Amino acid sequence: MNERSLIIVVIMHSKRNLILRAAEKIISTGGIQGLSMQQVANEAGVAAGTIYRYFKDKNELILELRKDVLSQVAAAILQDHQIGTLEERFKRIWMKMHEYGKQASPTNLSYEQYAHLPESNTEEIRALEMKLFEPLHRLFEEGLEQGVIQPLHPRALYAIAMEPSMAMARAIRRGLIQYDQKDITLACDLCWRAILIPTTPTN
Amino acid sequence: MNERSLIIVVIMHSKRNLILRAAEKIISTGGIQGLSMQQVANEAGVAAGTIYRYFKDKNELILELRKDVLSQVAAAILQDHQIGTLEERFKRIWMKMHEYGKQASPTNLSYEQYAHLPESNTEEIRALEMKLFEPLHRLFEEGLEQGVIQPLHPRALYAIAMEPSMAMARAIRRGLIQYDQKDITLACDLCWRAILIPTTPTN
Amino acid sequence: MNERSLIIVVIMHSKRNLILRAAEKIISTGGIQGLSMQQVANEAGVAAGTIYRYFKDKNELILELRKDVLSQVAAAILQDHQIGTLEERFKRIWMKMHEYGKQASPTNLSYEQYAHLPESNTEEIRALEMKLFEPLHRLFEEGLEQGVIQPLHPRALYAIAMEPSMAMARAIRRGLIQYDQKDITLACDLCWRAILIPTTPTN
Amino acid sequence: MNERSLIIVVIMHSKRNLILRAAEKIISTGGIQGLSMQQVANEAGVAAGTIYRYFKDKNELILELRKDVLSQVAAAILQDHQIGTLEERFKRIWMKMHEYGKQASPTNLSYEQYAHLPESNTEEIRALEMKLFEPLHRLFEEGLEQGVIQPLHPRALYAIAMEPSMAMARAIRRGLIQYDQKDITLACDLCWRAILIPTTPTN
DNA sequence: GATGAATGAGACTTCATTCAT
DNA sequence: GATGAATGAAGTCTCATTCAT
């Protein structure tokens, strides 16, 4: 790739990205229903027609945004995921997920909008989700192989130990709970121990 | 209230309810975006204009439906909530929530659509939620007073111990986990013990 | 049908017809390309959305207009078609077609727009055309059975004897030929004799 | 003109022609309504902006194409038009017109799209048409001068004797008549005799 | 109270045309 | 000369809402 074509790709990506970020922002504020192509155009500072150079139609824009947001979330949550013991790895992910979920950033807010959509275009999204969060599944599977984690399906383990992280973050973000670091640490620990097989104390 | 006006109220309520049920069904299928007043009218078997005799506008219809659905969910989950020990009460609620969340009923499916909406009309909804789920909060508070439950905000306890119930139900409904009664019982038990303060074994 | 429902049907037809006539007028002026739904609405004196109560979309509007116009043309041309000898019947149709084609009426002008469209929705139109112009085909077939007309496919006979009627009308309408009744009579007679099998004069 | 500028002109003409042929092809397939500048550019293998170096705007492109197509049609139909007797000349033109009209070539198909357009830009087109088909008019005029052809305006003669050629070709192309060479020859002969002044047989 | 035809604002999308490169 | 990204006006169509019956 020569310099010229590199510049073209960068510009193209920057405009495509501009549009995605605009859509993300609007969704984070007004929900998916509140997303109009004209608004996206205004927010992105481009003409309405320009969006259609980068996305076939509104559906594709939303789908691509979902994929983009999912990737961002996964990257933030799974940063440094492979360092340390099982427990350290679990707690790092739990805490990062919590930190991330607490933010009122466009990315996080728009992320929540997608979570419970009626099942549409889900095949592609689900496959991407699987791929992106694979390290997390592997974490549970390692625990299962080592016999230290309760014998449940990784998704069930996720539901029990990880969902609370997001749920608490949401509650904090919405001002329903006062934020206190000590409580978070405790909650994280409780979640970890919830799926551990207890070791009988030797006396 | 005389007999005649009673009948009128009943009929009125039945038509109002017809419309709510129609809206619920449509939302459960196509999401909130897929809700058009004409569709609601068709599904309810009334004229489009009739809806406006019972609801000021579409927003109010959706708001009223949210409240209606929330009440139904609460009633289903909190049935017999006051019977038994703390543990029995917790587990009964957990299981009922799980059973409810597993269904693909219009009420449950439409319920999920509301959960993560952008914050709008939320004050009224939040107050209702508080009121309806008060027994659940009381359960946690009793446990806290008795010193058997981890010292966390009731909402945090809810996040840790109850959210997994819904999360698993969702995963099962979507076919991501195979359903196995033994696993559910285990998960329920893990959730309960997660928030318990462990009793030091006496020897 | 009671009086009330009759009125409803009449009103409905009148509005539907209003829209068709508006579309016809616009097409006669600016061609099919020049037809915008907003224009039709303006011309018909209704709101744009109203058109969609009577026609699914623009395609259907155009298709229905084609059918409507075709019916009008056929009715005008085949008026009294069954009276008299073969020759009289032929010449009456020829002359009526000519008279009709000479007009600059919206119906006639829009009719011409459809004649040479790229083949689309043609199945339904073709069937209707067959049905409406059946008397004309029968005329040729009778002539063939009686052995007085040249042994050609009715469509070929139509092309030879009838198309000139429309073609001349067009030329007159466009001001390319001066209109002279004697010439028309001659042309009509030439067309009729063109497809006749000449009778050998006995001496 | 030196060699270099000659090359430039040739190249320029070739690109201009490329664009015309692309437009012709698209119109033949999807009608004039289906013609978008982007499509023309794609089909011609040039950038959209390039079209505007050769044609002021879309209208001019269409106008130029009409003129171009008209010239092609005239050239095809009037090939060798001056050879032979009146009858031979007439029949040669009739048959060539028929052969040409039967084809589903882009040129012929797009030609039909123009024939019945609402009257716009017609002055220029009409003048060109006059000039191109002058030999055909002359043929009729010669016949009139010689007193062998019916005393009608050349356009009327054209309508009576030539339009059937195109009309039959169209019917054959569209599959409405089975093609049979003998019938064509008969039709051609009938058309010729239709405008002839019959010679009283001497006995 | 109920109806549903009508409205018209606003949504999505296309496409002729321009212009910086 | 050529490119094609960008523009934005204009088109089609939907739908919440009103109102005469």
Structure, explained:
The structure is a homotetramer of 203-residue chains. Chain A has eleven helices and no strands. By secondary structure, chain A is mostly helical. Chain A has two domains: 55 residues, Arc Repressor Mutant, subunit A (Orthogonal Bundle), CATH 1.10.10.60; 136 residues, Tetracycline Repressor, domain 2, CATH 1.10.357. Chain A is elongated and about 70 Å long. The model of chain A has no long low-confidence stretch (mean pLDDT 90). The structure holds a DNA duplex (21 and 21 nucleotides). Chains A, B, C, D: Keywords: DNA-binding. Chains A, B, C, D: This is TetR family transcriptional regulator. Chains A, B, C, D: InterPro entries: DNA-bd_HTH_TetR-type_CS, Homeodomain-like_sf, HTH-type_TetR-like_transc_reg, HTH_TetR, Tet_transcr_reg_TetR-rel_C_sf, TetR-like_HI_0893_C.
Task: Summarize the topology.
4 copies of one chain form a homotetramer.
Chain A: H1 3-30, H2 37-44, H3 48-54, H4 58-77, H5 86-102, H6 106-115, H7 122-132, H8 134-145, H9 154-161, H10 163-173, H11 181-195
The structure holds a DNA duplex (21 and 21 nucleotides).
